[in-house]
Design brief:
Length: about 400
Amino acid sequence: MSMKGFWKSGHPPTLLMALLYFDMSFMVWMVNAAMAPFISQEFNLSPAEKGFMLSIPVFAGAFFRIPLGLVAEMIGRKTAALIGLSITLLAMLYGFYFVNSFTEVLIMGGVLGVAGASFAVALPLGAGWFPPSRQGLAMGIAGAGNSGTIFAGLFAPPLAKAYGWNAVYGYFAIPIALVMILMWFFAKEPPDKMEKKSATQYLKVLGEKDIWVFNILYWVTFGGYVGFSSFMPTFMADQYGVSKVSAGQFMIIIGFTASAVRVLGGWFSDRFGGIHVLTGIYVMILVGALGAATLPSMSLFFIFLIVMAGGMGMGNGSVFQLLPLRFPYAKAITAGIVGEFGALGGAFIPMVMGYSMNTAGTYAGGFIVYGLSSIVALGFLLFFQRRWTTSWVGKGGKALASEETEEA
């Protein structure tokens, strides 16, 4: 599969706009996590309150994903993206002008959920231009917008230190406005849209067993990515005593690693099959999580964190190589559903980490629970793979030969 052939098979400007939309939205979604040490210090928060604060944007992002996915299915993905960007811009202005108490921080976290819901639109917007046999890579490129975590960790802490954490919301409004303008001019609605259906018809996919298997698979990969990205600044400050700025920038480690390899996860899955790739990934995540649970020296913890983040990122790409092959007629809504449950996994992690510290005096329990969840996901994958490879997907999870022929 040549990259030249890949780009010619779709619409690169729309894929790039989808990447930017998801990237900047993800940055905004993680802004409170990057500033958590500053906010926690100002309001003197307990470990449980920290975990709750960080879980709110993730819960809200999960809640909004299905509605935004439905909007994308019914009025168009580009239009839904512009609506999401508009609301996100208003949220940044609200944070800049009005957020000054812990309660208002929690309200702001809820509004940030719209940015987190961008996932349900960005991936099918960009990948909708590409044939089935190349959607793993297209989804991986659009999904690399997870790298917004990098920008949140890189810019939010130093800006918060220099100008105060409220000012960060104002600064982050600027790139959101720029992406809105670019989206308006350069993105095009994908041509893969089938006949319009009612919301009830689209939601019928919730009755499919396979959608729930995908929910479990993505709960572990994307949930781990979001959860540990959001909690890492708090963890590093509490566990290893690093400065507030350095703690916030530890998000970059997860963000860079997972975003870079997400594209590889999609590409490997196109080439070797998403089922094969995911099998190795869940083992990889288990090793990283159990190693991190020992709470070793910071340098050794860094290695386990890289292993975990690499597994999460590749796993995200692999899950979304398989999903559009199974539900080609409802890409936006299924992306929203699976993305919602993945985000719920991300909300679960900060709470488990905070609960572990509150009750046992250590964060180790949170890593152990996460490692065990990867075993559960692997079990479901292995149980369902035979039925999948004899019905809608090829050996190991590759696109069926008939879909390859459609591309030609």
